[in-house]
Amino acid sequence: MRALRVLSLVAVVAMSLPAAAAEAPHENGTNCSNCHFGHNAPGGGLTKTAGNFSLCQSCHTTNAPDFGFAWSTSDQAVPGTSGRSHRWDAAATNLGATPPSSTGDAAAQLMAPHMDGANIQCSTCHDQHNASTYKGTLHTSYAVGSAVAATGTGLGRLTLNAPAAASAAKAYRVKIVAGGAAGAATFQLSNDKGTSWFGCSSPGVYTQYTGSNACVTSGTGSVALNDGTNVTVTFSSSTGNFAANDQWDFYVSYPFLRADDTDAAMCVSCHKDRHQSAANVEGTGPLVGNGQAIVLGTTVFSHPVGQSLGNTYDRTVGTNGPILDADGSPQTTGDGIKSNNLTVGATGKVTCLTCHRPHNAYSNSLTPDLP
């Protein structure tokens, strides 16, 4: 009886603990089993695949729009030779980098517990279960602006409009209830792949689906989904009508950054010797970084980061003109390829990410990379 009472207490305590947060596309519920295995799991953390990269790659095997997957080990950068991505399996001390430490800055303290021994791994920088803390750059599993055919027999199309920066990380399933042309066809909405459904009490106002409160599509404009007006879609029947049970699955999410990366904070957390001002480059102080291993006047520096444009040799609006695009014209009206734009940070400062991209970087600046 005593053993039974102890077990009962443990069960009560376990049930009282809050569930871990998980955002699209790594949602809670039945989708936990996509990566985790309750018994005899081969990987740490009860994962179905051993090895951090191997587990991530077990899903990321296709070129999903706006993500640049699939990843392979050959994509990792070999400086001066090949690659398109920051390495995810190398020593954290490569090229003078400083391993994240529990006594380091805020970003380092968040990354430090998630090393693979002395090496970095995907989860050193990314936290697959908490997408909303440090949002980073918004991504979608559908290419924005593409008219997508349904999983079904209808000929109608759904287009995902550009989501707002304030969008929540969320999965969507849009399912046609009554077929017809855009403006007449109706739909229901799910955020958990059909386990539960929403209908509408009025356009854009979502309530629990009752079987008789389907939402009405629009034939004249966008329709807001259940994140305010942050995520909207457009229904079109120009290629034919919608049919009952047509459906579309997509998600809006972020790259699950483990730390705040404003002004490339995660980069300079490890690459401290790259965090320097124009004065540092020219051999004078003070140092602007956080304990980097450099010697003023001796260390060979590269381009300054962490300071605003405005020196006599900078191109800034009002002096030498705006930043130029890859084709030599002003970036504001340049070649139209966003991926090669040189963008300054939140406070107008040049950062590591002004020129570099941790994933999907190409050597030819004219390459129209994914946004």
Question: If you had to describe this structure to a student in words, what would you say it looks like?
Answer:
By secondary structure, the chain is α+β, with helices and mostly antiparallel strands. Among the domains are: 19-137 and 258-265, no CATH class; 148-253, no CATH class. It has helices spanning 2-16, 52-57, 106-111, 122-125, 265-270, 278-281, 352-355; strands at 139-140, 147-149, 157-160, 170-176, 186-190, 198-202, 205-208, 215-216, 222-224, 232-236, 247-253, 307-308, 349-350. Strands 1-11-4-5-8 form a five-stranded antiparallel sheet, with no helix packed on it. The chain is globular. It starts with a helix and ends in a 16-residue tail after the last helix.
Features:
7 helices, alpha+beta, 371 residues, globular, four-stranded antiparallel beta sheet, disordered N terminus
Provide a short characterization of the protein structure:
This protein has 7 helices and 13 strands. With 371 residues, the protein is an alpha+beta fold.
Largest sheet: 5 strands, antiparallel
Order of helices and strands: HHHHEEEEEEEEEEEHHEEH
Classify the helix fraction into a percent range: 10-25%
How many beta-strand elements? 13
β content, as a range?
5-15%
Could you tell me how far the N terminus lies from the C terminus, measured between alpha carbons in angstroms? 62 Å
Give the averaged pLDDT, no decimals.
Answer: 82
In terms of structural class, how would the helical and strand content be classed? alpha+beta
Low-confidence stretches: 1-20
Distinct helical segment count: 7
Side by side, the strands of the main sheet go 1-11-4-5-8
Rg from alpha-carbon coordinates: 25 Å
